[in-house]
Amino acid sequence: MPKLRWVQALTAGVEGWLVLPDLPAQLILTCARGTHRESMPENILGALFHITKPYAAIVEDQKRVQWTRRMAMPLNGKTLGILGLGAVGQEVARLTGALRAPLPGLAEVFYPAQTADVLAQSNFVQLLLPATPETENFINAERLAQMKPGAWLLNFGRGHLIADSDLIAAVKTKRIAGAVLDVFRQEPLPAEHPFWTTEGILVLPHIGGGHPTRDATVARLFVENLGRLLDGKPLREVVDRAAGY
How far apart are CA 168 and CA 173, in angstroms? Predict the structure, then answer.
């Protein structure tokens, strides 16, 4: 298709597109960045409540007709470190934070070089980074050791952000409290993967960004970009190939 000028990806992640050997250099590639804003922040909140509130254990108690007094951990006063302040990360901050500036819901914004400070201060570490060569195994044994012993790791970004074996070791040895994982290197997650059976790791079937009307949301973005292309205007959500997203 030598006359092809533009392609609209239906997903926010474009790492699969960028490795295609026949992707023309002059082709404009736009992604669906921001279309997960409606659903993923709520699912992340759900994961935080799952960690801190004993409803799952209460359901099991009810099955056994067993009255067990349980204690819920308050989220108020805890620190959520968000690695990746894109559209979803900022919405998570808005929903979870009561502090002010420099962005609503954010107590402080750190530079990437200060990641260790974020890990050391956070009760919950939320991964929303894109998939690039620089973020491969971003969360490894070294960074897991920088987290609080009682902290939880939540990954709704990309599966390859985590060194799987390092995370399993950190959870098994109680280096961190546990992890909620919604994305994986291989999906569906193979039945033999130890994530399934590691106590303290919750496996979600990639529910983070999906919702019943997401196709319509992406379609609206496509229509808007098509109009912009025909009018000679800059397109929205253009992929920076050098950055990888």
Answer: 9
Query: Which residue type, as a one-letter code, is found at position 235?
Result: L
Please give the backbone phi and psi of residue 198, each rounded to the nearest 5 degrees, phi first: -85, 115
Domains along the chain? 6-35+212-230 (no CATH), 40-203 (3.40.50.720)
Active site residues: 158, 206
Angle between helix 87-96 and helix 40-52 axes, rounded to 10 deg? 50
pTM of the model: 0.79
pLDDT tens, the chain, 245 aa long: 889 999 999 999 999 999 999 999 999 999 999 898 889 999 999 999 999 999 899 889 888 888 788 888 888 888 999 999 888 999 998 888 643 444 555 556 777 889 999 999 999 999 999 999 999 999 999 999 999 999 999 999 999 999 999 999 999 999 999 999 999 999 999 999 999 999 999 999 998 888 888 899 999 999 999 999 999 999 999 999 999 99
Query: What string of DSSP letters covers 148-163?
Result: -TT-EEEE-S-GGGB-
